[in-house]
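Thought: the user asked what DNA-binding protein looks like in 3D. I have the sequence; next I should run the structure tool and report back without guessing.
Action: structure_tool
Action Input:
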Amino acid sequence: MRYLFDASSIVNLVKKNFVEPFIEGATVELAFYESINALWKEYVLLGHIKEKVAVELVEALEDIFNVIKVLSTRSMGKEVFEIASNERITIYDASYLCAAIRNKLTLVSDDEKLRGMSSKYVNTTTSQQLDKKLEKVKLLFNGFCHKLYGIDYFHWYPVMFTSLSKH
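Observation:
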């Protein structure tokens, strides 16, 4: 594991259909419902997405949460409360930060306030920065696979990822 994803980064990566980072990552229990809530808000309250798209994205989240490592924060209550109180952030945001600290992970968040404050404790990045970084690696690896085996690895990768989540 290298990354701890918050709900904002999970939703943004899923909307781009960019699932590879989740294999090297983790999140906390509440992220599933926070992610679904963000999609519900975009559909019901803001009207930014159609119902069909929202449902498809929720299904994609279900697949991802069958693969990504989900860390329990139940034993971190006191630490989460202290971080939230000292930094004046929500308990939800503090749970992401606490899990990242405890597990020595880079916090991936598209919430500028959380990312800025968290950088005092852990390395941070955005989903967009991670996307760019992994895209470079992906291109190099794909070129390597094509040269050696004559295959386009990342053309088949999303199919493989989906089939893994079904088991």
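Thought: the tool returned a structure. Summarizing for the user.
Final Answer: Structure for DNA-binding protein predicted. The longest strand covers residues 25-28. The beta strands are 3-5, 25-28, 69-71, 106-108, 124-125.
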